[in-house]
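Saturday, quiet lab. Running sequence design on the structure tokens for the scaffold JK sent over.
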């Protein structure tokens, strides 16, 4: 019985003897792996240091290194290290410049995206304020015209229906509207305003079909048109002409709203041509 108890202890000692040599190579490999990682970290740290340090500072460090190497009587290895450092400096400088350019481009894109988001939020808020006011005024005009001029009231009602048909899809969609959608909405708005102004408004729409698919901020075009009518054409007794056009200028979409009304600074003879443009 005591023999059976001694046998397991003998086997476990033999097992320890067999496993001990296997653990040494594992420890050696782990140590070599750590050394390799340390060398890689030191190399990239040296690379980044060369990318950041100025040429003047590098020359000073190189001169001090040569002086120290001459004192220790080992100038050749230090000289080779300095030459290699200058070569790496040139390469690292290009890498650093590329990183800075990429970072600047990323920051610029983020800033433009933030500005675009803020502008869209402002336009949505403006849309929420303009539409009820515009709708109530139009309905009040229709109600008044029903009693005084039924045919004109019917025409205004049809224009309002067309405007709402153009506006409703944009309210339901979460994506940004296209220039074509804004042009259709603006066209319906101008048709409605022509009825309200009793023919004193002559709208002209000139937007190429190829540009209508471009993304365009919501309500920006209608806001420009409303300002042109309010400040340029409505105060003018005979009314006038308003033109909406679009073109590509220097690779960017440019949308123009032009009127021949009195403008913000009226002159004694006729009006001033007041261009208003928006790029998107």
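Result came back. Writing it out in full:
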């Amino acid at each position: 019985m005591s023999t059976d108890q001694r046998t397991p202890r003998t086997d476990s000692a033999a097992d320890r003897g067999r496993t001990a040599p296997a653990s040494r190579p594992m420890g050696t490999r782990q140590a070599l792996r750590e050394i390799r990682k340390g060398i890689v970290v030191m190399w990239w740290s040296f690379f980044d240091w060369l990318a950041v340090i100025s040429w003047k500072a590098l020359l000073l460090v190189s001169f001090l290194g040569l002086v120290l190497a001459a004192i220790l009587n080992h100038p050749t290895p230090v000289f080779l290290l300095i030459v290699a450092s200058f070569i790496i400096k040139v390469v690292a400088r290009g890498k650093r410049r590329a990183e800075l350019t990429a970072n600047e481009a990323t920051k610029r894109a983020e800033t433009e995206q933030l500005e675009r988001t803020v502008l869209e939020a402002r336009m949505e808020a403006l849309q929420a304020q303009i539409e009820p006011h515009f709708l109530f005024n139009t309905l009040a005009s229709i109600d008044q015209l029903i009693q005084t001029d039924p045919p004109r009231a019917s025409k205004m009602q049809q224009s309002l229906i067309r405007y709402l048909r153009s506006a409703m899809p944009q309210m339901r969609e979460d994506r940004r509207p296209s220039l074509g959608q804004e042009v259709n909405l603006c066209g319906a708005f101008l048709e409605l305003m022509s009825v309200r102004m009793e023919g004193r408004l002559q709208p002209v729409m000139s937007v190429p079909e190829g540009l209508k698919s471009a993304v365009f901020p919501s309500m920006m075009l209608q806001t420009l048109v409303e300002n042109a009518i309010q400040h340029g054409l409505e105060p003018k007794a005979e009314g006038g002409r308003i033109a909406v056009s679009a073109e590509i200028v220097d690779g960017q979409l440019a949308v123009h709203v032009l009127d021949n009304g009195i403008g913000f600074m009226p002159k004694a003879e006729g009006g001033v041509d007041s261009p208003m443009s928006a790029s998107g």
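Notes for JK: The first helix runs from residue 2 to 52. Confidence is low (pLDDT under 50) at residues 1-10, 268-280. Ask whether to fix the surface positions before the next round.
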